[in-house]
Amino acid sequence: MSTDHTRGPEHPRTPHDPRPLRVAGHDVPVVTATTVVVGTGSAGYCAAARLVQLGHDDVVMVADKIHAGASRNAGSDKQTYYKLTLSGGDDDSVHEMARTLFSGGAMDGDVALAEAALSARGFLHLVDLGVPFPQNRFGEFIGYKTDHDPRRRATSVGPYTSRTMVEKLEAKVRADGTRVLDECRVVDVVTVPDPDAGPGARRVAGLLVLRTDVPHDGAASPWLLLRCTNLVYATGGPAGMYATRVFPHGQWGASGAAYRAGVHGRNLTEWQFGLASTRPRWNVSGSYMQVVPRFVSTDADGGDEREFLTEAVPDYGRLLTLVFLKGYQWPFDIRKARDGSSLIDLLVHRETVLRGRRVFLDFRRNPVRDDFDATAMSPEAHRYLEQAGVLGGTPIERLRRMNEPAYRFYLDRNPRVDLEQDLLEVDVCAQHNNGGLVVDAWWRSNVAGLFPVGEAAGAHGVYRPGGAALNSGQVGATRAAQYIAARRGHAPLDDAAFAAAAGPVLAGALDLTARATGRAAAGVPDNTGDLLRAVQELMSRQAGPVRSDASVRDALEQVHAWLGGYDDLVTADAGSRRAVNRTFLVRDVLTSAYVYLSAMADYLAHGGRSRGSVLYTDPDGQLPAAGPDDDPLDLPDVYRFRLDAGALDDEVQEAAWVPPGGAPPVTDDGRAFAPVVPRAADDPAGLPVFRWRPRRPVPEDDDFFENVWREFREHGNVP
Q: How far lies 223's CA from each of 104, 185, 386, 702, in Å?
């Protein structure tokens, strides 16, 4: 992590209008601010609001599209926010919540403690901004249990919890007068050496973005440089890597730029996958599964309809129960794939990936037979439906009685789906990256001044309670803002130093653009869209919820070839802002995919087995069964697996990308970074390298009030 504790003289707020600066032989507009926040989701807006609240108001925000992104456009039937218990008589404490987060495996204990300690503060900040979390008549914020949650810490404002958070936080940021720049594609982070932090260390100097609203072949410059001391990186996870994803359209991420800047990654193998509709994109959790719809598959043209679950689960009551359980066991969990509800995900995966068919939910008819016999289900499922008053009828009748908004949601989408009339197409989709850019308990990365927050940050372990991501985003944004306000108020680089640092970055972007547009001018067709689809489909097919050593390495070699030859491969029409934009988007996606696939290969080489939301094929493993007492199913061997069983829970995998001709990072703990696949030192794709370290434990509760109070009065709580 960064060791920069220098506050420096407080830099006065500067005008945020761009002014030209000569960089790499070109006049480029430059916006200067002490802190730049990249991303306009709930974490980014929270960081901007907290910075101003703490007196650090020299802030500018940038986004590729302000109204895109997962926070504003994603959700479920009851999107969850996870926090410390604030109602009832249930026992809870900060350290107990921290231990719950820590128990997910491969999570650092100091991060878990910070997320628990600030959960109430982050939650109540949202309440004060107007997010209508439900309270009882005494003012208690009532809760319920979510997945991986031993208490009742979860709460919700309905399908659009995160959207409501974004809207209220955005209103606060607008009221503060913070400038927000839209239509800015992240190209690269500008860094300079940081001699105070040791050999090879870097610190942030700025950011290069492409103005996607400015024509590339016009008089105005499409490039914009942001000069800053701090960069709060709230770009979301690298959603653009997968074709089969529930991330909303327009959520791409920009992790590749961070890796190219020297930021390390953590737990990159740990994704979360789950059943979701594909058009429109939405999680089909909660009520959508608890009303027990019929699962059918068709050929590519919608013909040859089959109710395919019965092939593997012939027992009527067992089938109904497994579908019901997907409602609150929604994420694919390899521990529930042997004979539990996640078998449903694997059967859907077999239809779509192995058989090339399409899968739909049918709410018009009951599974297997026309009548619905809830008495055949497990007592737990039967009792739930009985209490809801929906023991009969059809799935759509049960849904409309239990959760009318869940039905109406699809009526208001584009494309519009009427569940009373239409089938709903679904697949097992990438939904969230539990790993990401490395952070410490102040959400500092290893590059001084760069603070990843939200899904961009690798703050989670293998498992996390449902809704913990929303809490993590608010906590991380608050911690980063606290540290910046207390220790990093000094001015950015002067003109000469910044022009020297940004020059090579801008020159590289100009060269790539000239090559890509030059090929188009010579008559080579634009291929940016084809390349984007190709890498996404490759990742979904070979590195999704079902992976093998062979599939990962095959995908890795293909991505390596694309990335290594990218400068001479990509072609973009200079007259198309979209094509030039995608030139840098595809490079970012390829960089992320290259690092992530290498992390998967390294995980397997380290002895990793199936865990979390991923099945790693093991020829010596077991096949799933329809029930605990049943024989293994007749499934392809790709579904054979052995559980990790927590073997690597106490270790954290860290990743770094080494540029061509560079050297692996120098570490101070004796655990050097090393490649999993040897490559030449000057390989144009660069070299991903890895190390494994023990996770940091949850700090002991040994604070004595008088000592903490004295330290807080004299120095604050920021180191």
A: 43, 10, 61, 52
**What's the gap between Cα 237 and its chain centre?**
3
Does residue 519 contact residue 567 with C-beta atoms inside 8 Å?
Answer: no
The radius of gyration computed from the CA coordinates of the chain, to the nearest angstrom, equals: 25
Beta-carbon-side half-sphere exposure of residue 454 (alpha carbons within 13 Å): 27
Q: Summarize the confidence of residues 32-46 as an average pLDDT.
A: 98
Q: Is 268 helix (H, G, I), strand (E, B) or coil?
A: coil
CA torsion, points 252, 254, 256, 259, in degrees to nearest 10?
Answer: -150
Backbone angles phi, psi at 521, to 5 degrees: -65, -25
Number of Cβ within a 10 Å radius of residue 320 = 24
Q: Which of 236, 252, 235, 274 is nearest to 466 (CA)?
A: 274
User: What is the number of other CB atoms lying within 10 angstroms of the CB of residue 274?
Assistant: 24
pLDDT in tens, 560-600: 999 999 999 999 999 999 999 999 999 999 999 999 999 99
Q: Is 158 left (phi over 0), alpha (psi -120 to 50) or beta?
A: left
* Cα–Cα distance for residue pair 118/95, rounded to 1 Å: 12
- Angle CA 482–487–491, to nearest 5: 115
E runs forming strands in 24-146: 26-32, 35-38, 59-62, 81-82
Distance CA 268, CA 657 (A): 13
Residue 531 to residue 528: CA distance in whole angstroms: 5
For residue 700, which amino acid is it?
A: E
The sign one gets for the Cα dihedral 400, 405, 406, 410 is positive
Maximum CA pair distance of the chain? 77
Token couple for 102: 């820590």
C-alpha 612/C-alpha 297 separation (Å) is 27
Checking DSSP bridges between strand 26-32 and strand 223-227, what pairing results, if any?
parallel
Q: Coil, strand, or helix at residue 200?
A: coil
Q: How far apart are CA 295 and CA 543, in angstroms?
A: 25
Do the beta carbons of residue 204 and residue 230 sit within 8 Å? yes
Q: Of 588, 531, 590, 549, which is closest to residue 677 (Cα–Cα)? A: 549
pLDDT one-digit tens code per residue, 384-410: 999 999 999 999 999 999 999 999 999
| Domain boundaries, given as residue ranges, for the chain | 272-431
Q: What count of other Cβ atoms lies within 10 Å of the Cβ of residue 554?
A: 16
Residue labelled with tokens 């840098």: 584
Bridging pattern class, strands 674-675 and 436-437: unpaired
How far apart are the C-alpha atoms of 281 and 414, rounded to whole Å? 10
* Helix (H) or strand (E) segment spanning residue 169: helix 161-176
Q: Strand, helix or coil at 194? A: coil
Give the separation between CA 490 and CA 11, rounded to whole angstroms: 5
487 pLDDT above the threshold of 90: yes
Coarse DSSP helix, strand, coil percentages of the chain, rounded to the nearest 5 percent:
35, 20, 45
* Closest by CA position to 357, among listed 365, 366, 367, 348: 348
